[in-house]
Amino acid sequence: MKSLSLDEAKCLLEKCKNSGRQVDMTRGRPSKEQLEIGMRMLESAGELDYTYAGGDARNYGDLKGVPAARELFADLFGVGKENVVVLDGSSLSIMYRLVANAMDFGIMGEKPWREQGRVKFLCPAPGYDRHFAICEEFGIEMMTVPMLADGPDMDVIERLVQSDASVKGIWCVPKYSNPTGIIFSDSTVECFASLKPAAKDFRIFWDNAYIVHSLTGEQHHLANIFDEAKKCGNDDLIYEFTSTSKITFAGSGIAALAASEKNIADFLSHLQFEMINPNKVNQVMHAAYLKNTDNIARIMGEHAALLRPKFELVDRRLFEAFGRDCPDVKWTMPLGGYFISLDVRGVAARVGELTKCAGVKFTKVGATYPYGKDPHNSNIRIAPSIPTLEELDFAMDALIAAITIALAE
Amino acid sequence: MKSLSLDEAKCLLEKCKNSGRQVDMTRGRPSKEQLEIGMRMLESAGELDYTYAGGDARNYGDLKGVPAARELFADLFGVGKENVVVLDGSSLSIMYRLVANAMDFGIMGEKPWREQGRVKFLCPAPGYDRHFAICEEFGIEMMTVPMLADGPDMDVIERLVQSDASVKGIWCVPKYSNPTGIIFSDSTVECFASLKPAAKDFRIFWDNAYIVHSLTGEQHHLANIFDEAKKCGNDDLIYEFTSTSKITFAGSGIAALAASEKNIADFLSHLQFEMINPNKVNQVMHAAYLKNTDNIARIMGEHAALLRPKFELVDRRLFEAFGRDCPDVKWTMPLGGYFISLDVRGVAARVGELTKCAGVKFTKVGATYPYGKDPHNSNIRIAPSIPTLEELDFAMDALIAAITIALAE
Fold first, then answer.
1. CA distances from A149 to A177, A181, B178 (A)
2. Radius of gyration (C-alpha) of chain A in whole angstroms
């Protein structure tokens, strides 16, 4: 440990400021080197056969996506192909559409949410700001649920979901959670799968964004929520999502929904008015490049090799400055995903101000909480993927100096 | 002319039926040969530079699309780049979203349509069934407006739009109209551009789907509705759409919206909750392949060379069977687009039944009218693009025989 004195910290922050350098760590974006990995897919695009039994990916048809892509995601999710729809680049779009459909048309024959008075979503926090933003867009009330080490607080969730029919959904990132990096335990998944909601049209929005995004090369276990739900006849309860945004290209990949056949039919009954089909050419390219789950794990190993040193640098620098036992500065060292979640007790907003002045931008403080309000003014989401190691070292100078100053103030 | 006797017609239809052949002409889909044209785009996908000033198409960012694609569509539409958003494959999705946004959130600060009681759209007919389907999905009342030779009946439109604040929109395909193939005259476009709607949140949905889809090689004139609208300070009135579905790949191309800066800002204010960006990799591929309006015209010449003989065959076969002066059988010979619109007075449904039994499927009779109801039971949309010339000749045997029988019955 080589913690800074207040004077040293002020001096270091001033040095950062005077360097005129800018580092943007606001979002979990892949680096240029990671994007180069996906170029192999584009290089073979001209040589592929875009036809398949019963269709041509270059022509209209197949609202659910091409068979090869649906099979690939079915294997990833551990569900049947009939439970999968593959669409365009953004899984967020699928979530948005499902919420919009529920508001306007209702889920599987239930009344539209719009006609049911005030409706609510449970939001484990810290969580993903874009999930919360969808609720804000549609005027859905958000109720914060604490995140624990093995998932959200299931006692709170059970009580609210099972007693209040105005609770219609919950946002989850079950693997390498955004931003805390935890993996939901088996008992958490089982508890989700066996919920008995007061509302028939309650749905779990299971955003498995980092389904294959190990940082260690090891494949970490997350229980299959559909397997658990089937045991109690509860599989209509779940919408599961993922995308290739951090496997191939961010926002230019393909995204998938897994759900029960009834839910899929309900979704398609509205989607058919919006499009004839998603970009199937891109789906054939992806299926040919990604091939199968083993090959995806290999590709993700290439990403991990680029990402891991960055996570390690952040961890090492924080450890050197604050040690593991500082009560005011705690952070996660995740096994996968894109974020290190840093808690700086009561001074997150001030740290954000100070680093911003020094040219280093983090995700807006508070963004990981519903309505952008962190009740403890404590959480900072560090997204180390984009900067180079050298830029990251600079950013950590600014961050450590800022924390030291803010805590002293 | 070599018209068939009733006996000859019955014999010919029976022959078609017994052949066991199936020809599907339900939708305006490009043929396999047309899709091969676009393969050149995919062949160079691996060699392109996906970075541009201020961005990388392979990473998150640029909700409006990549600059090169926005510039290309701005040139095609004849508007500024600031007036263009480029999204994924389906222009229908953009239309759907705009209607959904208007229903749920309202247009540019006006009350949501949902809160304004019954709202109505004007539907020039025959028209595009998927436009009408969006209205049905959202419970928007459709009012049929007759299509004339130079566009929809503007007297009817002016009267309804200017007197009734519940009239919120109108669907138009202004060039090589679906299905009648007409091009709106300058005076029709001027009349649209100078409408003074009773509703502030009335919008013209100007679906310029066939903006460059000439069948003759000649570029046919359609007045620029934005130029006209600006003259009377009316440019907030228009949403214009197009896509490359019939330039590159159907549903796997890119689609664009052109609108006033205020409308664009309004659209993006909701789109930002739904996605971080569209598939920009596909946009860079398209911009590099399509290059500019001249090059697009050259590519469309390749499509026209494949399409024109099919349109000519349909025209020739109908002419030989019924001549130009048959009061019961009239059809269009369009200068562009994907359809021949056939009117068979009072017997369209019966013709559809007879051809279907003989293995030849047309767009569902009535589909070109709101609620699927053709008041004259007269319109059949012929989409000759998909079949080979030989299949098309077979389909025309069945069609001509069916018309002859239906008229005799």
1. 11, 9, 58
2. 22
Residue B223: C-alpha distances to residues B186, B193, B334, B409 (Å): 6, 10, 18, 45
Q: Which helix (H) or strand (E) covers residue A407, if one does? A: helix A389-408
Q: How far is B56 from chain A, CA to nearest CA, in Å?
A: 9
CA atoms within 13 A on the CB side of A245: 31
Query: Who's near B18: CB < 8 A, 6+ residues apart?
Result: none
Cβ within 8 Å of residue B104, ≥6 positions away: A100, A103, A104, A138, B112, B114
pLDDT band at B1 (very low <50, low <70, confident <90, very high): low
At A365, which amino acid appears? V
Q: What is the pLDDT of residue A199?
A: 98
Chain A residue whose CA is closest to B93: A274
Domains of chain B: 6-28+298-408 (3.90.1150.10), 41-296 (3.40.640.10)
Contacts of A97 in chain B (CB under 8 A): 274
In eight-state DSSP terms, residue B251 is T
Q: What is the rounded CA–CA span in Å between residue B250 and residue A49?
A: 16
Tokens of B157: 């439109």
| Cα dihedral A133, A137, A140, A141 sign | positive
Tokens describing residue A377: 């003014």
Q: Give tens-digit pLDDT for B310-338.
A: 999 999 999 999 999 999 999 999 999 99
DSSP labels, A333-373: --SBSS-EEEEETTTHHHHHHHHHHTTEEESPTTTTSGGG-
CA distance B87 to chain A (A): 11
pLDDT of residue A296 exceeding 80, the answer is yes
Interval A75-130: pLDDT, tens: 999 999 999 999 999 999 999 999 999 999 999 999 999 999 999 999 999 999 99
Look at the alpha carbons of B244, B247, B252, B253 in this order and tell me if their dihedral is positive or negative.
negative
For A273, the closest chain B residue by CA position comes to B134
Inter-helix orientation angle A186-193/A154-163, to 10°: 0
Taking CA atoms, A385 is separated from A30, A133, A312, in Å, by 6, 23, 11
Q: How close is the nearest chain A Cα to the Cα of B311, in Å?
A: 20
Distance, in Å, from the CA atom of B368 to the CA atom of B383, rounded to the nearest integer, reads 13
CB B171 within 8 A of CB B127: yes
CB-CB under 8 Å, A56 with B35: yes
Residues of B with CB below 8 A from A29's CB? 59-60
Query: How far from B85 is each of A91, A299, B108, B241, B260, CA to CA, in Å?
Result: 20, 33, 17, 10, 11
**Residues in chain B closer than 8 A to A277 (CB atoms):** 89-90, 250-252
| pLDDT tens for each residue of B356-405 | 999 999 988 899 999 999 999 999 999 999 999 999 999 999 999 999 99
Interchain proximity B274–A90, CB inside 8 Å: yes
- CB under 8 Å to A47, separation ≥6 — which residues? none
Q: How many CB atoms lie within 10 A of CB B100?
A: 23
Of B46, B100, B274, the CB nearest to A93: B274
Give the end-to-end CA distance of chain B in Å, rounded to a whole number.
22
Contact B230, B262 (CB under 8 A): no
pTM higher than 0.90:
yes
Beta strands in B151-298 (DSSP E): 151-152, 167-172, 203-207, 238-243, 255-258
Look at residues A324, A322, A325 and name the one whose alpha carbon lies nearest to residue A333.
A324
Q: If DSSP codes are grouped into helix, strand and coil, which group holds residue B291?
A: coil
Question: Is it the case that residue B151 has pLDDT exceeding 80?
Answer: yes
Q: Do A58 and B280 touch (CB under 8 A)?
A: no
User: For chain B, give me the number of helices (H) and strands (E)?
Assistant: 14, 15
